[in-house]
Fold:
Amino acid sequence: MTFVLVHGAGMGASCWDRLVPLLDGPVVAVDLPGRGRRAEVDVRGVTLDDCARAILDDVEAAGAGEGHDRIVLVAHSFAGVSVPRVMEPLASRLDHVVFLSAVVPPDGSRVIDQIDPSVRDAVRACIVDGVYRQDRAAATAMLCNDMTTEQTEWTADQIMDDSAALLEEEVDLSGLAVEVPRTYIRLAADHCYTPDLQERSVGLVGGDVHELVSGHMAMVSIPEHLAALLNSLSTSSKAPAATATTKGK
Structure:
């Protein structure tokens, strides 16, 4: 089983570094265009199609899902709008798709219109010349409310510039029609994508639901609990039927 991890807005593949060693299988941690291994791309011109292409390119380069291998595809936060774009081309390779506090707005809408108004104002304040550049203090308030000082500083160091245009682009969720087992992981202490907004996304994603007691960056604050859940999902083509709550602290 290969885990393909797709990060959210203002992050790169490095945000998964504390989770990767705990997963039971090879890992492909994708850097979307404009950050990490793809830092040479001007982030201001990045589209959701570009994000989808980066995911597919990394899957192909790693040979993930070929032969007897299968893929557990994990979408965190803003990746909820890029991962559905690759579900159809990867359908034959997918074992499970996991949405981790993922932003999944209604088809044809814009992400900026679907987030909490207080967070929306903070996001807009971080946009300069087409670049979404998060203020360190504001980002830690949204992302690190449940973290230790060390975890908070580490997370703040991972923050990268992102494309403001992605927030305004209409989303295409047609890939959700692909018949593949899926799970939405709610994060009960999330101050960035709040539980009520997560519940709206749950309704669009379908599948099974689990809940972890964590803020937005569960891969940093409770990596052991998140890894245990992801590893359990990868052992079967069907996630456990009952909604489960795991206390992460």
